[in-house]
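Data availability (excerpt). The following record was deposited with the supplementary files.
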Amino acid sequence: MTSVLQPHKGAPNGTYTFSSRPRPVQNRSKYRERVADQDDGPSNYGNIMYDRRVVRGNTYAQHVLPTTAQPDPVEIQRQQEARRRALARKRAKEHFRPRTPEALEGRKHMDVQTELYLEELSDRVEDFSVECQTDAFLDKPATPLFIPAKTGKDVATQIVEGELFDFDMEVRPLLEVLVGKTMEQSLLEVMEEEELASLRAQQRAFLELRNAELVEVQRLEEQERRHREEKERRLRQQREVLERERETADKIAARAFAQQYLADLLPSVFSSLRDHGYFYDPVERDLETSFLPWMMTGVSEALEKRNAARTVLDMLIRDVAEQRLELHQPLLE
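Predicted structure:
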């Protein structure tokens, strides 16, 4: 904040100074207060690596374009043409820029200050200290408009009518520049149109040539595809013929081997089956399974009855002999 003070007694008349309005020093705590919205969350550390305003990475490396990126020649030519036009326009402006004519004989040009309020220019700014006693704080008054003091001397130059600017003479180079630029621009446009027409003709010729080449490529691809399919079909037929021949040979060999193997196998199999009882006479089998077991059972029962009768007879004979021996025992004594 700056304010205008009254001129000092020791200062020269008409000078002004700047001074900051005195203000009381605010009472600051010793430690930094925590922000209200960060009371609940974790405290942030003062690490500048987490500051978003800190630029990370290489800040002085040059941006090198990749070697594979090839600029468009038409774009390069257009940029060069625009650069040449800009340089020509700049030189024309510098050449036809209106300048102050030379002073007449007996006169000379002088540097004058044309501002409304004059100000003395110096390399060193005059400064000095001023002390004052302030009252209680009041409302800030409106800041007065700064009006620098007028210094220096007024100097005037007499210029008669027609001395600085002549329309007929000054407009001629402007018209020449405008007409020249118009003709140059029209010629450039005509050349661009001719170049575009030539490029379109070349593009049409290229497209026709490319379409013819594509048709030829498609014809060759179709021919190659037909040849490949015919070759695969014939190879498949040949493989099928060879497969059938191999199967026929395998069948013939298997049949011959089977006949040779079965020539001696059938008699041995039949004899083995006959030995194991798979081939039998029904009458003989009936005798063996029905008659002979029945006969053996009957014979066994008859023999058992005969043995039982002999046992009973032997017991009876023994009892009779013992009884008679007991009867005749006293007589023998």
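Summary of structural features: The helical segments are 73-95, 167-275, 282-332.
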